[in-house]
């Protein structure tokens, strides 16, 4: 396998620590063409769709990419912002806020945080290339998925590994696998919910909605289902919330295969029919608001609950770049940065290093 040339290197240049904050992805625009390009990349990932390629490709290109993009584009249009896709907007803000918090927590340190999308732009390759070009040779890959799944976290690792296979100079890499039960993350969720309860009041039932996965992933050993339930249990304990007033559900089903249950929308309808008048939904598997939370839950979920007889529905936003959310992300990053030197060499030390390299024949 051929490798790409390494970025131009100058001896004595700064060597910051790099963090790549990776989220799932988004189309470039709320249009059918942009959504088609995004879905083609997303649904071609064998981690996402585990159907044999010879069977899946005709379905994907012959049916799904002809029918689904226009429908999905209309949904994206309902949540699109003047700055662009909500997921990309929040991920960029999180990256900037994490970099700022690291600078405050470690005066004199030099840490660069780059946002990246597993599918779409900016890509994982682009983010890693930017960090390498800035001189980073120690890079922490931080997928923004609290719960591990092969289709999300595992796929992010695949993208990083593919970039490494094509790179001549592979930096020292660390990879965050999950933080579903991290105390700072659980506390951030609880703090965010309590703050919203101060305005909205407490619901009859709090529904925790996680992204769905085919049931076969659980049977094949993916820990996602178990980690979702653990997050919900720890959240209930942190809130002091009665376990019988909390539901764990799974949203975003796709295709005809059996998916993890119970499903979110049917659960909301059932709660309304059972006489629960006030329901709130939180999505602890999403670190940032996106189509799946803002349209599927805040719009479609609300409509389903009210149509079935419910009276009050609230969607509780993701942590996004809130103070509590960023404190949790900082805590996770710091755990995995341990042992790396965050304080850069002085100008004099770097210049001395450069002079030694030049004396040995280095070009720059």
TrEMBL record:
Q: In which pathway does it act?
A: Porphyrin-containing compound metabolism; protoheme biosynthesis; protoheme from protoporphyrin-IX: step 1/1
Where does it localize?
Cytoplasm
Q: What biological-process terms (Gene Ontology) are attached?
A: heme biosynthetic process
Q: What is its main location?
A: cytoplasm
Q: What is this enzyme's catalytic activity, as reactions?
A: Fe-coproporphyrin III + 2 H(+) = coproporphyrin III + Fe(2+); heme b + 2 H(+) = protoporphyrin IX + Fe(2+)
State the Gene3D superfamilies in the record.
3.40.50.1400
Q: Which UniProt keywords apply?
A: Cytoplasm, Heme biosynthesis, Iron, Lyase, Metal-binding, Porphyrin biosynthesis
One GO molecular-function annotation for this sequence? metal ion binding
Q: Which InterPro entries match?
A: Ferrochelatase, Ferrochelatase_AS, Ferrochelatase_C, Ferrochelatase_N
> Which CDD domains does the UniProt record give?
Ferrochelatase_C (cd00419), Ferrochelatase_N (cd03411)
Which Gene Ontology cellular-component terms appear in the entry?
cytoplasm
Q: Where does Fe(2+) bind?
A: 211, 292
The Enzyme Commission number assigned here is: 4.98.1.1
Against PANTHER family, the record matches this protein to:
FERROCHELATASE (PTHR11108), FERROCHELATASE, MITOCHONDRIAL (PTHR11108:SF1)
> Main role?
Catalyzes the ferrous insertion into protoporphyrin IX.
Family stated for the protein in its record: Belongs to the ferrochelatase family.
Q: What's this protein's name?
A: Ferrochelatase
Source organism: Ideonella dechloratans
């Amino acid at each position: 396998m051929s490798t790409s040339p390494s970025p131009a290197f100058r001896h004595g240049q700064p060597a910051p620590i790099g963090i790549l904050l990776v989220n799932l992805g988004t189309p470039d625009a709320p249009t059918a063409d942009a959504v088609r390009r995004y879905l083609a990349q997303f649904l071609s990932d064998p981690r996402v769709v585990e159907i044999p390629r010879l069977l899946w490709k005709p379905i994907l290109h012959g049916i799904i990419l002809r029918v689904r993009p226009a429908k999905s584009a209309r949904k994206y249009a309902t949540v699109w912002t003047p700055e662009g896709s909500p997921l990309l907007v929040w991920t960029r803000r999180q990256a900037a806020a994490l970099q700022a918090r690291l600078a405050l927590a470690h005066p004199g340190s030099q840490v660069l945080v780059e946002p990246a999308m597993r599918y779409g732009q900016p890509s994982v390759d682009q983010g890693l290339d930017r960090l390498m070009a800035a001189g980073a040779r120690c890079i922490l890959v931080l997928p923004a998925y609290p719960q591990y799944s092969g289709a999300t976290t595992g796929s992010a690792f695949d993208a990083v590994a593919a970039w490494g296979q094509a790179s001549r100079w592979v930096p020292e890499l660390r990879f965050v696998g999950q933080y579903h039960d991290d105390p700072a993350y659980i506390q951030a969720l609880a703090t965010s919910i309590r703050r919203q309860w101060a305005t909205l009041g407490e619901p009859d039932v709090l529904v925790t909605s996680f992204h769905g996965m085919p049931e076969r992933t659980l049977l094949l050993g993916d820990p996602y289902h178990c980690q979702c339930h653990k997050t919900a249990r720890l959240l209930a304990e942190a809130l002091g919330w009665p376990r019988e007033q909390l539901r764990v559900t799974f949203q975003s089903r796709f295709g005809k295969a059996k998916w993890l249950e119970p499903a979110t929308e049917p659960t909301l309808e059932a709660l309304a029919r059972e006489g629960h008048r006030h329901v709130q939904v939180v999505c602890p598997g999403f670190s940032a608001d996106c189509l799946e939370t803002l349209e599927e839950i805040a719009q479609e979920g609300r409509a389903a609950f009210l149509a079935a007889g419910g009276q009050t529905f609230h969607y509780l936003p993701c942590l996004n770049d809130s103070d509590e959310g960023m404190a949790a992300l900082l805590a996770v990053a710091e755990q995995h940065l341990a042992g790396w030197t965050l304080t850069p060499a002085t100008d004099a030390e770097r210049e001395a290093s450069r002079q030694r390299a030049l004396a040995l024949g280095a070009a720059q």
